[in-house]
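Workshop exercise sheet. Pairs work together: one partner reads the sequence aloud, the other fills in the structure field after running the prediction. Swap roles for the next sheet.
Pair: D.N. / O.F.
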Amino acid sequence: MKKILYPALMSATLLVACGGPSTETTVEEVEIAKENEWISLFDGETLTGWKKFGGEEVGAAWKVQDGAIYLDATNKKDWQTADGGDIVTVEEFDNFHFQVEWKIAKDGNSGIMFFVQDNGEYAYPWMTGPEMQVLDNEGHPDAQIRTHRAGDLYDLIESSEETVKPVGQWNLAEIIAKDGNLELHLNGTMVVSTTMWTPEWEEMIANSKFKDMPGFGKYKKGKISLQDHGDEVWFRNIRIKQL
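Structure field:
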């Protein structure tokens, strides 16, 4: 079968024809390279690439501090107010490997949601997007509930083991979604593995707090969301690659 070459590589192909070194690159090879390429979702200085869920500009409570996205909840009268609220990526993703480092304030609660739909039809990201929990397991009351602890697939699957670090330390979270197969990793350990969009997945949702949310866990493409749960939280080194 004839190989298809990008125009920019034609000169290299001519070198081959003339006996020069082979630098021929196929479409398939370019696609593989693209799939293996990490894309930064945070430049460490601005909130470019992020927006408020259901709105435009990110609220003032979300700041960039020491190379991290920081939710300053200290002066907020109530969580989810105009100056805060959940934020989402501008772009949508389907099959992906997502990485982020996070740390939480004492007694804090937050989360990372994915496949979120921000189309005006839903009031909150958690009405569509499953969540990897971010929590102070030692101080927040939610930690008393199985499936509500750090690293859990929130209200659906508890972590196989607890690998979260103490308050104030950075944790590496990874979400890998590929053709319905879902893995959550925390600090280098796979803590959740499941398959989405199966009868078992639907049954699990039906037995959760999301049972009356018809859009939850249904979508195969969407935005990444960082949650404002009213507590201070930090996120840094945010990146993604397509799979």
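Discussion prompt: The two ends are 26 Å apart (CA to CA). What would you look at next?
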